[in-house]
Amino acid sequence: MQSIKISYGNIFLTGITFLIISLSSGCIQFKQASLYDGIEETQKPAKPKDISLIVESMIYDEDATDVWGLEKDECQEAMISTTVAYSGNESIQMTWNRDAEGCKFAGIGIGWDGYAGKDLSEIMDFVAIQMHVRTQKGRAFGLPIVLTLEDYSGGMGFSYATNKYFERTAIDEEWQKVIVPLNSFEMEKENLDPTNIKQLQLELQQSGSIYLDDISLVFYEPEPQKPWMVEEVLPDPTAMPIQILDDAFINNNAWGLISDDCQTIEMTSAESTEGNQSLYAKWNDNGDCKLISFGVSWNKWRPVDITSIKGTTAIQFDIKTMGGNKSDLPIKVGFEDYERAKIYVDLKSEFVEGGQYTNEWKKVSVPLSAIPAGLDLTRIKQLYITMEQSGEVYIDDIKLVEL
After folding, report:
1. Residue 164 and residue 262 in one domain
2. Contact indicator for 26, 11 with CB cutoff of 8 Å
């Protein structure tokens, strides 16, 4: 890009940044304007074909030249073993107790590749540290080791050799792999620079007694997680019709079918209009009854948004009284939302065919639009029916239907 030269009187401006010059009232005003305000997206590194093209992949094998901490003190006893090895002739043998008196630090460090600065930034998402581990004796259900990457400016990143990285459920006297992904390291807390790694430290916690061998960088892809609980796919809770009660309540998700001094609410085969059973309810509120009600969720207790169907849907059921003809009943029908608000409408003559509730089966249709406002229609919990005063009825074939 060529330089821009602007002359005004004795003033000369040169450069590649645009300056807006405003002449007003004999004054000169300058305002800087950017040529380009876009933010260039950082490209994610591609997976290399070979780790060794990026960095030395062997951290420890047979050569302990770059290993420090092989000593015996109040915290640990770490040494090279020539009697036990995963491969070759040697391994690292460690026994430690961080609770020992005077113990301030237990662990070892490996500066691999002659302590050359190592750039891991391009492989953080594709590579893991793999260690072969076994106990000296017995079994251990954990591996209390903090893996620490340190850079040449003193920054650090940490990861823990937790059980999820084990090849088996416990560390025992048989060799197994422990694989810790590089992207599991916490790098921001102590400002690790992954482009200039100095060493890997293994900080020992609690106590233990193990052998380590063949520590290296390997390609790693996590296994797909199998969900331990698959969410059930339910039918559309607003697709009409929805059968709430026939011979049983939908999904058996009903409550309130009890018998006490105030009520008897139960399924019975004595009467029915659909199938072989209906709901029998007999109640008498003597003034001490706190709740004479029953309810049912038709969506397995998940919230239902009924805003789209409020004007086109009705609660419909068959009812038979046991006390002669009545123009209304001391029964309220409505909903409860997930804020515990309950709104009902009384069973009046306008909702029953023929305008009378009788000792013959009659069909009841209660439009949802008849239920007063006051509910969160986006989070309906259940159909709710409550009884007052006293009465005796059979109810069957409860469903939600289009008007």
Report:
1. no
2. no
Say which residues have a Cβ less than 8 Å from residue 238's Cβ, sequence separation at least 6: 304, 305, 306, 308, 309, 313
Same domain (yes/no): 214, 355: no
Q: Is 224 a member of any domain?
A: no
Indicate the SS3 state at residue 356.
coil
User: Could you tell me if residue 391 is inside a domain?
Assistant: yes
- Residue 47 belongs to a domain: no
Mean of per-residue pLDDT scores for the chain: 90
Average pLDDT over residues 20-28: 46
User: What pLDDT, on the 0 to 100 scale, is given for residue 308?
Assistant: 96
Looking at the structure, tell me whether residues 199 and 322 fall in a common domain: no
CA distances from 249 to 267, 337, 387 (A): 10, 19, 19
- pLDDT of 373 > 60? The answer is yes
Residue 236: pLDDT band with limits 50, 70, 90: very high
Q: Classify residue 106 by burial, with Cβ atoms within 10 Å: 0-12, 13-18, 19+.
A: buried
103 Rama sector, left if φ>0, alpha if ψ -120 to 50, beta otherwise = beta
pLDDT at residue 5, as a whole number: 45
For the chain, give the number of residues: 403
Report the domain count for the chain.
3
Of the two residues 13 and 350, the one the predictor is more confident about is: 350
Q: Long-range contacts made by residues 299-304, C-beta under 8 angstroms, separation at least 24?
A: 299/234, 299/237, 300/232, 300/234, 300/251, 300/253, 301/253, 301/381, 301/382, 302/234, 302/237, 303/338, 303/378, 303/379, 303/380, 303/381, 304/237, 304/238, 304/379, 304/380
Same domain for 338 and 384, yes or no, is yes
Asked if 215 and 321 sit in the same domain, the reply is no
Query: Quick one: which of 299, 301, 319, 300 has its CA closest to 309?
Result: 299
Domain co-membership, 253 together with 390: yes
Residue 228 lies in a domain: no
Q: Residue 283 is part of which domain span?
A: 242-402
Q: Please report, for the domain that includes residue 167, its CATH number.
A: 2.60.120.430
* pLDDT tens digits for range 27-72: 555 555 555 555 556 677 888 899 999 999 999 999 999 999 999 9
